[in-house]
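Audit log entry. Action: structure prediction of a protein-small molecule complex. Ligand: zinc ion. The ligand was supplied as SMILES and no pocket hint was given, so placement is left entirely to the predictor. Protonation state taken as written. Sequence taken verbatim from the request; no trimming, no tag removal. Recorded inputs:
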Amino acid sequence: MKTIKLLAVLVIIGLLLVSGCSSKDDQNGESEDDRGTTVSESSADTVWTCSMHPEIRESEPGSCSKCSMKLIKAAK
Ligand SMILES: [Zn+2]
């Protein structure tokens, strides 16, 4: 019985470690892609544009008014 308990604890710890690592990675990857939550850094300085319509220039992230694709940061 003792070994079973030990095994269960080890498995749980392993799962926690794995899920902790992967969720961290997910958050890091998503937060930038998803909404540009790093806006606070340089929102006044950043221009958002559509990859299909470079004439679109917005000061805030959003979607293109022509094709409603997600806007991307424009290279200056
Ligand atoms: Zn567009």
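Audit: result stored. The chain has a mean pLDDT of 77. Residues 50, 52-53, 56, 64, 66-67, 69 surround zinc ion (CB under 6 Å).
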